[in-house]
Prior knowledge:
Layout: H1 2-41
Keywords: Membrane, Transmembrane, Transmembrane helix
InterPro entries: DUF5989 (IPR046031)
Transmembrane segments: 20-41
Amino acid sequence: MKGSITLRKLLEFIKEYKKVFLIPLILMVVLTLIIFVLSSLSPESDFKYLG
């Protein structure tokens, strides 16, 4: 019984962690897209930092 309770707590922790981690991840993706669009729209676009 003790193992199943621990597993349930672990699954709940993973769900909460995903919920907390998803918002910064989406913000990072949106910021990256905005920077990419702005740099491609600017006439002096230099893509050296993209590798």
